[in-house]
DNA sequence: TGTTAGCACTCTCCACTGTTGAGTGCTAAC
DNA sequence: GTTAGCACTCAACAGTGGAGAGTGCTAACA
C-alpha cells in the first residue's frame, strides 16, 4: 500500500513511542513526555512538529486543542503491522501457563475451559474460547445399550474420544440379539462417515434386519440424530469479562453494560466464528475494523486452533483498542500451540 | 419478638408506603410524597412526625439532614415479613413463563439453564441455579462397552436418567465374555447403592471373576470412580449478571466489579448451597444478613427445589436490597413448582 | 536546512462560591 | 391529635478563576 512509506523512520519511532506510552497510561501523550522518556535525541518542539504531521496523516488525534495525542485506529493498525515488538514470554511466564495447563485434562471440554481462564487471567482481558466445529470428524461407533427393561442408552463416539449419549424410554420387549443386530447395522451405516454427511437410516428400513418394532426404532434413530446434533454443537467458554470494568474507557456504565451483554450473548460468537474459520491465521481487528457495533471501540485478537478440516475452533481475546498487542498475540499463539499439541495427543492416542 | 408490636397500624402503613416508593425510585422518600401519593388521610407534617419515630426505631434512615428517608435492613425485614403484598402473577405472565419452559427439555441440565435464564429475564435480577446435589441418588447401572479393540467406554447411569461416561484406552485383549462378566460384577456391587455410599471394588478382587488383567481393571475402576465424581459435581448456571449495572446503587464501578466477580466465582455458590440446603424453605437474606462481604449491600432470595434427600438443588435471585420482593418471591416459587414437576416427571418415567 | 528555545494561547481540571430546591424539626394554632 | 407555617440544613448545580499541561508559531541558532 502507498501509505506504508509515508512515514520516515523518525516518525515511526515517535508514533511507536506515543502508542507505547498511551497503552500504559490511557492518557493523551504530550511531546515533552516523549522527548524525556525516550532517547530519540530530539527536543519537544521537534516532536511537536512531527506530531502535527502524524495527526494530519491520521495516525493520531487530539481530543481537544491543548491536550496530548491519542492513537487512532489507523495508528494502531500501523503499530500492529510494523512497529510492535514481539513480546518474548519470560521463562517464568511460560512456566506459569504450562503449569496451569498441565493438570491432566480429563475431557476435551475441560481443556478449553481451562485455556480460556488461563488466557484471561494472564492477559487481563476477556477471552472467548469456542469448542471445535466437529462436523468434519468421523464417527467411530454407535452403541445401543440396555439399561433396564424400559430404557435404552444410545451412545455415539467420534474421533478424539468425544462421546454423547441419550436415554430412550420404551415399552417394548427387547432381546439382547436384536440390540446387537441394531448396533451392527447402525455401525455399518454410520461408522467412518463424517458427522455432517451422516444420514440416519429410516426406521422402516431396519425392521426386517433387527426384528424390532418400528416405533422403537424411530425412538432410537431420533436419539442418534440428537447425539449427532449435540456433538456438532459448539460450546462457548467465556472468562474474565469483569476485567473490562478495570479499564478507564469503560467508566461509562452504559457502554460497559452494552459490551458485557454483547459478550454474554450469541451474536458475537456467530460472527467471530464465521470470520475466524475463514481466515485461518492470526487476526487482529482494531476498533472500527470490527463489524459488530459495540465492538467498534474495542480490539479483538483471534486465532484458530486444531486440525484443518476435522476439528477447528477459535480463541478470541477482547480488549480496548489500547490493548497490549504484543503480549496478547504471544500468549494467544502460545496457548494455541499447547491446545494443538493436546488435541494431537488425544487424536493420536486412537491409533 | 417484642419489636413486632412496636409499630401501630399507621406506622406500618407509612413504612410500607416509604418502601414501596423507594423500591421504585431509589431516591430518598420525603413526607410530602407519601402524603400526596398515598391516601392515608394525613398531612405531611404528621407523616414527618411518624417518620421521625420510625427512624428512631431503626426502620428507616436519613442519608443527610435535609434528605428524605431510606429504608434500613430492619425496615426491609419487617416489610418482607409483615407488609409486602403477595404479588399475583398475571395470567399473561404465567403464560409467558410456562411457554418459555415448555419446549421439551432434552436433558436435566438444559432445564436448569433455561429456568435460570427465564427467571433472570423475568425479574430483571441476576439468578443462580444450581444443579442438584445427587449424592443421595441411587446408581441404576454401570456398563462397560467396547468401542474398538483399544478403547472401552465406561457408562454410569443413576436414577432420573442421568448419565456420565468416560473413555478408557488400553492395550489388552478383551473378549466379549469378560466384558459381560465385568459389567455384571460391577452392577452387583454398585447398582442400587447411593452415590455417596458407592465404593468401587479393588481391581485385585475382580481378576478371578472377570479373567481380566489387573492393569485393565484398574483403569476401568478409576473411570467408574471418575464418573461418580462427575455426577456428584454440582453445575452452576448464572444469568443476567449485567442487569446489576442497571441499578443506580452500582454506579460505583469498583463495587460493581467486586460483586460481578463474586458472582462469577465459586465462593458464593459454596456458601449459598450450604445454607440453602440446610433450611429447606424459602429464604430472604437482606443486606447485612448475608455472610459474604460484598453481598452485605444486596439481598438474596433462595429456595430449594427437588425431592428431599435424593436430588435437591437451589435457586437464588440476587438484587439490591431495594428489590421487588413481592414479584421475586412469586416468580421463584412458581419456577420451583415447574422444576419440581419436571423432575418428578423424569424420575417417575423410570418406573 | 533542520532543530530548538521561548512565548502566547487554549483548554481541562479543580477548588471555591452562591443559589436553588427539597426536605426536615419545631412551634403554635386549630 | 393534627396540621400550617417557618426557620434551618444540606445536596446539587452552575458559574468563576487560577493552575497546569500541552500546543502552534516564530525567531534564533548550528
From TrEMBL, chains A, B:
<comment type="function">
    <text>Negative regulator of class I heat shock genes (grpE-dnaK-dnaJ and groELS operons). Prevents heat-shock induction of these operons.</text>
</comment>
<keyword id="KW-0346">Stress response</keyword>
<dbReference type="InterPro" id="IPR021153">
    <property type="entry name" value="HrcA_C"/>
</dbReference>
<dbReference type="Pfam" id="PF01628">
    <property type="entry name" value="HrcA"/>
</dbReference>
<dbReference type="GO" id="GO:0003677">
    <property type="term" value="F:DNA binding"/>
</dbReference>
<dbReference type="Pfam" id="PF03444">
    <property type="entry name" value="WHD_HrcA"/>
</dbReference>
<feature type="domain" description="Heat-inducible transcription repressor HrcA C-terminal">
    <location>
        <begin position="110"/>
        <end position="329"/>
    </location>
</feature>
<dbReference type="InterPro" id="IPR036388">
    <property type="entry name" value="WH-like_DNA-bd_sf"/>
</dbReference>
<dbReference type="InterPro" id="IPR023120">
    <property type="entry name" value="WHTH_transcript_rep_HrcA_IDD"/>
</dbReference>
<keyword id="KW-0805">Transcription regulation</keyword>
<dbReference type="InterPro" id="IPR005104">
    <property type="entry name" value="WHTH_HrcA_DNA-bd"/>
</dbReference>
<dbReference type="InterPro" id="IPR029016">
    <property type="entry name" value="GAF-like_dom_sf"/>
</dbReference>
<protein>
    <recommendedName>
        <fullName>Heat-inducible transcription repressor HrcA</fullName>
    </recommendedName>
</protein>
<keyword id="KW-0804">Transcription</keyword>
<feature type="domain" description="Winged helix-turn-helix transcription repressor HrcA DNA-binding">
    <location>
        <begin position="7"/>
        <end position="77"/>
    </location>
</feature>
<keyword id="KW-0678">Repressor</keyword>
<comment type="similarity">
    <text>Belongs to the HrcA family.</text>
</comment>
<dbReference type="InterPro" id="IPR036390">
    <property type="entry name" value="WH_DNA-bd_sf"/>
</dbReference>
<dbReference type="GO" id="GO:0045892">
    <property type="term" value="P:negative regulation of DNA-templated transcription"/>
</dbReference>
<dbReference type="InterPro" id="IPR002571">
    <property type="entry name" value="HrcA"/>
</dbReference>
Amino acid at each position: 500500500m502507498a501509505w506504508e512509506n509515508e512515514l520516515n523512520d523518525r516518525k515511526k519511532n515517535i508514533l511507536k513511542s506515543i502508542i507505547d506510552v498511551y497503552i500504559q497510561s490511557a492518557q493523551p501523550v504530550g511531546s515533552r513526555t516523549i522527548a524525556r522518556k525516550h532517547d530519540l535525541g530530539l527536543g519537544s518542539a521537534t516532536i511537536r512538529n512531527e506530531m502535527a504531521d502524524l495527526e494530519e496523516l491520521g495516525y493520531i488525534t487530539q481530543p481537544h486543542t491543548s491536550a496530548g495525542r491519542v492513537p487512532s485506529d489507523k495508528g494502531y493498525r500501523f503499530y500492529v503491522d510494523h512497529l510492535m515488538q514481539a513480546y518474548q514470554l519470560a521463562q517464568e511466564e511460560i512456566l506459569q501457563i504450562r503449569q496451569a495447563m498441565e493438570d491432566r485434562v480429563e475431557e476435551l471440554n475441560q481443556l478449553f475451559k481451562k485455556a480460556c481462564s488461563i488466557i484471561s487471567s494472564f492477559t487481563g482481558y476477556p477471552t472467548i474460547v469456542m469448542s471445535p466445529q466437529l462436523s468434519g470428524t468421523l464417527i467411530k461407533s454407535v452403541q445401543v445399550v440396555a439399561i433396564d427393561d424400559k430404557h435404552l442408552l444410545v451412545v455415539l463416539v467420534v474421533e478424539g474420544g468425544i462421546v454423547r449419549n441419550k436415554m430412550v424410554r420404551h415399552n417394548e420387549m427387547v432381546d439382547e440379539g436384536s440390540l446387537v443386530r441394531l448396533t451392527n447395522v447402525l455401525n455399518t451405516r454410520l461408522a467412518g462417515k463424517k458427522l455432517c454427511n451422516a444420514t440416519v437410516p429410516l426406521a422402516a428400513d431396519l425392521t426386517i434386519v433387527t426384528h424390532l418394532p418400528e416405533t422403537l426404532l424411530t425412538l432410537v434413530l431420533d436419539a442418534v440424530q440428537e447425539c449427532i446434533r449435540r456433538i456438532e454443537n459448539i460450546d462457548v467458554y467465556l472468562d474474565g469479562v469483569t476485567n473490562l470494568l478495570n479499564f478507564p474507557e469503560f467508566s461509562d456504565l452504559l457502554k460497559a453494560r452494552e459490551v458485557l451483554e454483547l459478550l454474554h450473548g450469541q451474536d458475537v460468537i456467530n460472527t467471530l466464528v464465521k470470520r475466524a474459520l475463514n481466515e485461518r491465521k492470526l487476526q487482529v481487528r482494531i476498533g472500527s475494523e470490527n463489524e459488530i457495533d459495540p465492538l467498534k471501540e474495542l480490539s479483538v485478537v483471534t486465532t484458530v486452533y486444531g486440525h484443518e478440516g476435522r476439528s477447528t475452533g477459535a480463541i478470541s481475546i477482547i480488549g480496548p483498542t489500547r490493548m497490549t498487542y504484543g503480549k496478547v498475540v504471544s500468549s494467544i499463539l502460545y496457548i494455541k500451540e499447547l491446545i494443538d499439541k493436546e488435541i494431537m495427543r488425544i487424536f493420536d492416542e486412537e491409533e
